[in-house]
Amino acid sequence: MENLNIRGERSEFFTPHVNMDAETGKCEISGESYLEYTGEFYDQIISWLNQFITEVNRPLVMNFRLTYFNTSSFKAILNLLNYIKKYEKQGGNVLVNWYYPEDDYDMLREAEDLSEGSGLNNMVLIPYSLDD
User: Fold this and answer.
1) CB within 8 A of 39, min separation 6: which ones?
2) What is the CA radius of gyration of the chain?
3) Is the pTM of this model over 0.70?
């Protein structure tokens, strides 16, 4: 199985960086998510996860390091987290880390809403300094 790597871009719309490693199960979405075709973008991540779950079936560590996302990205991320929750319900070993800037209380609230909405048992909210 191949890794999924998408280099983030900033222009009229912002595309997050995506690194999904099939060998280690360590995955990350970072940057800003303000897309024109949000569903199509996140569908390719869910498709990769489906293949990972079906073919590899290893522990999954999903790291989010988003500094901004719009409403359509929120919905797509929730769909992604719900998909991860299905894997967890099937007995998959799942850990989701949500990194947020320590002074960004809006991002913290959004992450809390996503955690509650998905019902993931292992979603950890981790503050960090933007100076790090």
Assistant:
1) 72, 76
2) 14
3) yes
